[in-house]
Specification:
globular; binds protoporphyrin IX containing FE; single chain
């Protein structure tokens, strides 16, 4: 950046920061931000990238029915902000993300990612109100750790080694083949945790020698998820348009819920027949033959829920979750993936929705805690969808701003500093 431009940018930034101070923002932030004189030059951004960070669907391959095929590998990187956030922090993060955008095409053959910000970033570091609430336990039968990370970076593509290389560059400063520009985040962010995983035909079967899965290799060879069923059919997902925030500082953003669940599939595969697994995954009114023919909709009619409870004494996961639909449409867009982290079968459940309340409504519907009042054969977990087989270990909520606002959103002076 030339000196004159820099001086202007800085003056504009300080004026904005002063204005924000009058508006009551945390003074520590302003002092820190005002010290941010060591601006890093901001790299160029390839043209044509979508305004929504979560606009992945248009880049995804489709199966023969038109269902989007998720990227095969995912990685979640969690960070805290280093010290007091400044515009120099924001420039460093933005620069690294732009380097990634220049290095890889936006799509599963290149790289897809979202940056989300947690409750504490807004309240603790900026002294302002958070657009998302802190996460909490969402059923009587879970006791999750509530993550307090400032930032969640979700990376996804079809090449596992690429995600490892990107992480090594961002976190450890390792060189990244083909990249021209800064990537190392260490002076802006402190790395806290990484979670990894995969989803797609063949991958769960290839990774089934882990805790939580019986040793006789029961996961079907072509299954995209450990539990053996296809997921993410078009009509069982919210659309990207439906989950986009329409107005305000987070317009074209969305909210993200990230949980980590352990799977315990001994009785799933060891004690249940195909028929019983289909009943628990979809609905007791669905037969394995019907399930095998699902194309764009797992037709697990929520209006048959009452019948499932009273007549069958078992309810299905898709059926109970579908009770949360609004105008016939699901509220959440699931971008979850299996994991073998820690040598244990698990699921990193990542879902996007316009508000965290939409997630809570969906998860409450999935709990089906009302069923036991009508039929004691069903409890919170027994005969109740897949609740018996998943154990929530961790939960967290994030806001995913628009692409333009993704680096240190709501930081005073940000717009000028990123110009
Ligand atoms: C191991 C964990 C899970 C597995 C294997 C799983 C699998 C499935 C499957 C096979 C369907 C049928 C529809 C489709 O093919 O997309 C479905 C639907 C659904 N699931 Fe899950 N799921 C899991 C966890 C969750 C969790 C934690 C939630 C959170 C609330 C959830 C929410 C939903 C919703 C909202 C639907 C669509 C309901 C509708 O059509 O309105 N699932 N899931």
């Amino acid at each position: 950046m030339n000196e004159r431009r820099y001086a202007l940018t800085r003056r504009r930034f300080i004026m904005r920061a002063a204005g924000a101070a009058a508006g009551g923002l945390a003074t520590g932030v302003l002092e820190g931000a005002a010290r941010a004189a060591t601006a890093v030059a901001l790299g160029a951004q390839p043209p044509g990238l979508p305004a929504r960070q979560f606009a992945w669907d248009a880049t995804l391959a489709r199966d023969r029915y038109g269902n989007a095929i998720a990227p095969r590998y995912d990685r979640l990187l969690f960070f805290d902000v280093k010290g007091t956030p400044t515009t120099a922090h924001a420039r460093q993060l933005e620069n690294a993300l732009r380097t990634l955008e220049r290095t890889y095409p936006w799509g599963p053959s290149g790289l897809l990612f979202t940056v989300g910000w947690g409750h504490g970033y807004f309240t603790r570091l900026l002294g302002t109100s958070s657009p998302v609430p802190p996460a909490m336990a969402l059923s009587d039968f879970e006791l999750p750790t509530i993550d307090d990370y400032d930032l969640c970076l979700h990376l996804a593509c079809d090449e596992a080694l690429r995600l490892a290389a990107v992480e090594a560059a961002l976190v450890g400063g390792a060189p990244l083949s083909g990249a021209s520009g800064p990537l190392h985040l260490a002076s802006a962010l402190v790395w806290r945790e990484t979670r990894t995983g995969f989803v797609g035909s063949g991958l769960p079967a290839a990774n089934q020698q882990v805790g939580g899965i019986p040793s006789d290799r029961p996961v079907p060879a072509g299954a995209p998820l450990y539990m053996g069923f296809k997921s993410g059919l078009t009509r069982n997902q919210a659309s990207e348009d439906a989950i986009a925030i329409g107005a305000g500082p987070f317009a074209e953003g969305t909210t993200q819920q990230v949980s980590y669940m352990r799977l315990r599939l001994d009785s799933w595969y060891g004690e249940l027949s195909d028929r019983e697994r289909v009943a628990r995954m979809y609905a007791p009114q669905v037969t394995p033959q019907q399930a095998a023919r699902f194309t764009v909709d797992a037709a697990s009619d929520p209006s048959l829920y009452g019948q499932a409870v009273r007549r069958y004494g078992v309810v299905g996961h898709a059926q109970t979750s579908a009770r949360a639909r609004r105008a016939g449409k699901p509220l959440i867009l699931r971008r979850d993936f299996d994991t073998a982290d820690g040598g244990q079968a698990g699921l990193h459940f990542v879902s996007l929705q316009r508000t965290i309340d939409d997630f809570i409504a969906t998860r409450s519907a999935m709990n089906a805690s009302d069923a036991q009042f009508h039929n004691p054969a069903i409890t919170d977990t027994v005969n109740n969808g897949i609740n018996e087989f998943i154990f929530v270990l961790k939960r967290a909520n994030y806001i995913i701003p628009s692409r333009a606002e993704r680096s240190f959103p709501a930081l005073p002076g940000l717009a000028a500093a990123l110009r």
